[in-house]
Specification:
Largest sheet: 5 strands, parallel
Number of strands: 5
Structural class: alpha/beta
Order of helices and strands: EHEHEHEHE
Radius of gyration: 14 Å
Helix content: 40-55%
Strand order of the largest sheet: 3-2-1-4-5
Number of helices: 4
Oligomer: single chain
Distance between the termini: 33 Å
Length: about 130
């Protein structure tokens, strides 16, 4: 039987996001290992909201999660300008990469808001994960 797949963008931009994303990545890996008939693929999108090695880079190794597939590289700015940069950068990635079936945002940082709005406006369903993983 051919494998069907469902694709998810996992959005992370700030230190607390990586901790939440790590649980989701592990759960998806466990699910995919158990089920042969369908697959959930994911693409890790790092917005670059926290871009310093100590604020994001070390977490990939410490939490045993893969390096981002996409790094929007937005950097720091005022809340409004940073949110706008994330929105325009994520919108561009949605135009140039295969479209996900779902966008998963975590936490309550600028990246969360920006990618949730951008995905919703593009017609991509959004799931939000906060406390209580």
């Amino acid at each position: 039987m051919p494998r069907s797949s469902f694709s998810i963008d996992l959005i992370a931009g700030a230190r607390p996001n990586f901790m939440k994303i790590a649980s989701i990545v592990r759960a998806l890996g466990n699910r995919n290992a158990l089920l042969d008939s369908s697959r959930i693929d994911h693409r890790m999108v790092h917005t670059g909201q926290h871009y310093d090695e100590s604020m994001s880079g070390t977490f990939f190794d410490q939490l045993d999660i893969p390096k981002p597939d996409v790094n929007l590289g937005v950097g720091s700015d005022s809340h409004a300008r940073q949110t706008a940069k994330v929105m325009t950068s994520y919108e561009a990635s949605l135009s140039s990469l295969p479209r996900p079936d779902l966008c998963v945002v975590v936490g309550d940082v600028n990246s969360t808001l920006a990618c949730a709005i951008t995905a919703q406006k593009a017609g991509i369903p959004v799931a939000h994960v906060e406390a209580g993983l």
